[in-house]
Amino acid sequence: GFSWNNCDFETNLCKVLPEFSLQPGWIRRNGQSGMGPPYSDHNGNESAYFLSLSSEMQSSSAALRTNVFLPTDEEHLCQVRFHYWVSQMSGTLMVGLQKHSEDTVTNIWQVSGELRNQWNVNTITINSTEKYEVIFSGMVETQRQGDSVAVDDITFSEGC
């Protein structure tokens, strides 16, 4: 079994995402915050915390960067598992990889508004011969009530 390095956002301590509370655009909140959906975390708990895009962000994106990870090898692939919420109208969530030698972020996974306002879960496997960072980028194109992008319980396997 894996021992996962977990970021559930219940506290401000997240070893793998050291600066998530300082990233402009992402806010740590719960379902009772009065900021629209989601109204609970992925377990249905209204008082449990998750990250969501701040509704003040008018048609822009916000990135969330991990620590630098060491290269993966055949025995230790890096698996990133996370729960996500993307509103059906105009939300997008992307996961990207930035390798040490490259200036650009390579998009490795993306979802946008075809979902029916519910939490979903996904696991991404990363293979990299050099040091890298993983970047979560959220985007909301309009500011209609109920448009939102959120992430919860981001976990990283030992290979990360």
From TrEMBL:
CDD domains: MAM. SUPFAM superfamilies: Concanavalin A-like lectins/glucanases. Residues 5-160 form the MAM domain. One of its GO terms (cellular component) is membrane. PROSITE patterns: MAM_2. SMART domains: MAM (SM00137). Signal peptide: none annotated. InterPro entries: ConA-like_dom_sf, MAM_dom, MAM_domain-containing. This is MALR1 protein. It comes from Rhabdornis inornatus. The lineage of its organism: Eukaryota, Metazoa, Chordata, Craniata, Vertebrata.
